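new request in #modeling-help
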Amino acid sequence: MNQNRRVLLKGSLAAGAVGAAIGAGLLAPKTVLAAWAKEAFEAKEVDAALKGAMGSADATASDKIKLKAPDIAENGAVVPITVTSEIDGTTNISLLVKENNTPLTSSYELGDTTEPYISTRVKMGKTSDVIAVVKADGKLYSTAKEVKVTIGGCGG
Amino acid sequence: MAKSIKLRAKETDGVATVKALISHAMETGLRKDQKTGKPIPAEFIQEVICESAGKTVLTCQWGSAISKNPFISFKFSGAKSGDSIKISWVDNKGNSDSLESAIK
């Protein structure tokens, strides 16, 4: 792991309070080393979001990605999603909700001993396809599942 | 400040299954305060880094569409009971927290 990041995280831990960390210049919003993919997260279309998150929007549909999500989400604010990729060489996974204002919910970069499995919970504004995209050996594969939402979860 | 992270990591046959629950509002910035009508500013975790035994195991980039009090679960191999496991997060306002524990 990058030594700078280790020092940054260690430093912010040692400092204790966030204020102290910011004061010491160790942790400022813009210095997250992995550079949060702002354009990808603010993109309003799936293709643009994918381009930002995975470098391309060109994904082949694959049945080797298992996407577990409820058929009907009781609460759009908390929809459990589990993605398991059976494609060799999976290095990255992204989760999108097509009908959300900004479809990209999250993106994951796997370590080399990390299994291609992610489970989390997302907000869905309304009934929509949930799309899981994985990058394996540099190529993109995707699968989608429609999740019906009765009460939307994005507020507003 | 109370730790915001609850972490459980268990190893079976060399594979560690990690479950983390983080206390965080994950505000999208789209909600309005009921009383004042003013929008509640966006406050959400943008990055989560998970490390074990000195290696980065998972790097997560999150948007505000991850649910409030976010949950994340993942697995990695080559794990041994007793290995360190650490979760750190940073949000869009520069707040952060981390928790280090050991794989059971």
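bot summary: Chain A has two domains: 1-35, 38-149.
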